[in-house]
Specification:
Largest sheet: none
Strand content: under 5%
Oligomer: single chain
Distance between the termini: 84 Å
């Protein structure tokens, strides 16, 4: 009985570690997507301001 309970306890511990890694990967993917979106928006805003600045001069 001790062997079975220690085996099950070990599996629970391994699953917790895997869950943390999965959450970290998801957070990293979200961060990469956010950075890419902000870079695109920043480029578009910069273009709009350049166009507006050229129209004013």
């Amino acid at each position: 009985m001790k062997n079975l309970s220690s085996l099950l306890a070990g599996r629970r511990k391994n699953q917790k570690g895997a869950t943390v890694i999965e959450y970290a990967l998801i957070a990293a993917l979200i961060a990469i997507a956010a950075i890419a979106a902000m870079k695109t928006v920043g480029t578009n805003v910069s273009t709009k301001f350049s166009t507006a600045g050229s129209a004013l001069t």
